[in-house]
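REVIEWER CHECKLIST
Item 1: Sequence provided? yes
Item 2: Single chain? yes
Item 3: Sequence as submitted:
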Amino acid sequence: MVRCPDLLVDGELGREQRASQRVQAAAEDFSPSAELVRPGIVAVPTRGPARYFGGDAALARQVAAAVAAVAGADGTAGRAEVGVADGLFAAVLAARAAGPAGAPVVIPPAGSAAFLAPWPVDTLERPELADLLHRLGIGELERFAALPARQVLARFGNDGAACHRVARAEDGELPGWRQVRRDPAGIPPRPATRRGADTGTRLTRAARQFGFWGEAAAAEARAGQAITAVQQLLGPEAAMLGRLQGGRGPAERIRLVPCPAATGPATISNSAATPGSAPGPAAGSPWPGQVPSPAPALVFVPPRPAQLQGTGNRPVGVSAAGLATTAPGRLSVEAGPWTAVVAWAGPWPSDERWWSPRGRRRRARMQVVTAAGRAYLLVVERGGWAVEGVYD
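Item 4: Structure as written out by the authors:
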């Protein structure tokens, strides 16, 4: 990330804007994907260039020198602060930590959370949120990040939850922080979340496959722009993204959320909630009765009816102790022909909302393999079996 403090505010004569464009051009000598995200701030992907120039620190020093040489060409001050970190927010603060005369600050991979911890909550640029947190005795990002995510969402809303994820270094960028520019076609460019050096130019790392110089593929960029255009015409729900969450059955573990606008699918992580949306149940929480990995390749919603019989063609059931009443012997799916069961595992019983007379739901799941070589995930509820998924 490259940050030029003297170019952060546009003057009347436009010199700062022209200087920002020169900074971007200088950064593009090191990576073609350098992007001006705010006046005086340029994000530069570092994964590919860092390998070529000898590491993040060596790249940051060269970028800082190149930017300082061009930023003040027309009389504007040429100070350049450079920082490298995972995510745009951490990279900006790393550049601020470098100071006007300091060496570039390089935060190691996966070290952003520890680096962000001592910074004040005011750096989130949410005055009302920061004022409330100060009144609650929470002055640093570390203390804010330590709060439970569900309580933060309930108390501070979606924007507060998004800031909370940034404070935890789970998301790399604050919603609305980037000043989105539009191309002549009216489609906003895809914001990049890359590891960055900040000299007024910020470099950020992304958890995705990069191209030769660290940039996403051109096809990926076009896909992100197309998604944004569709959402502008038809609404956010026109492009949905699968999000992994907690649950016992495979259908419960996927939640569809609107794909973030102007981002594109490549910048989205399954472990992070979409900014502005309520997070789903935690995928890492304990889920008694959850079917072990691997997940089925095909999941039916709703499940398809089936019959499972054992010895003497008696229906297979699950006892109150969570045990099969008899070993499965044959299976019929959607009233189709019977197929012999050659292997089975389970059952995995679950008793959900046992405290609610109306909401209680008792189910059990079982994996079976038939003589035809097909593997199924079955679920039984109220004595009836159904196929919930099919394995490859």
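Item 5: Key structural point noted by reviewer: The longest helix spans residues 149-167.
Item 6: Recommendation: ____
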